[in-house]
Design brief:
Blueprint (H helix, E strand, L loop, with lengths): L8 E4 L1 H15 L3 H15 L10 E2 L8 E7 L2 E8 L4 E9 L6
Parallel strand pairs: 1-5
Antiparallel strand pairs: 2-3, 3-4, 4-5
Helix pairs in contact: 1-2
Length: about 100
């Protein structure tokens, strides 16, 4: 039986954290509880990347070749890259689908 590959570590980069803070502020204007829960949901949507870092699709045209994306919510896209040499998934940005890509 094949040995299971150790999970990747998920690292949220500063810009992605800033994006999350902006989302919390925006949603929190109307519903602070929903804002906190929503951020938790976005974090949870990235957890499968620990075991399946290639889960998302290749990023959009104009982005670096190593950037991938997953739809974390019908309105939010998480952009990330996989660093195989250090078993890390770097979350780069979280953008509303209507926003320009990073």
């Amino acid at each position: 039986m094949a040995k299971a590959k150790p999970p990747y570590r998920i690292e949220w980069r500063p810009k992605a954290r800033e994006d999350l803070a902006a989302i919390v502020r925006y949603i929190g204007k109307d519903n602070p509880t929903r804002a906190r829960n929503f951020v938790q949901e976005l974090h949870e949507k990235t957890l499968p990347l620990e075991q399946y870092p290639e889960l998302g699709r290749n990023g959009r045209p104009g982005l670096p070749d190593d950037v991938r994306e997953i739809v974390a919510h019908r309105h939010y896209i998480v952009f990330y890259r996989v660093l195989d040499e250090v078993s890390t998934v770097e979350i780069l940005r979280v953008k509303h689908a209507a926003q320009q890509t990073p």
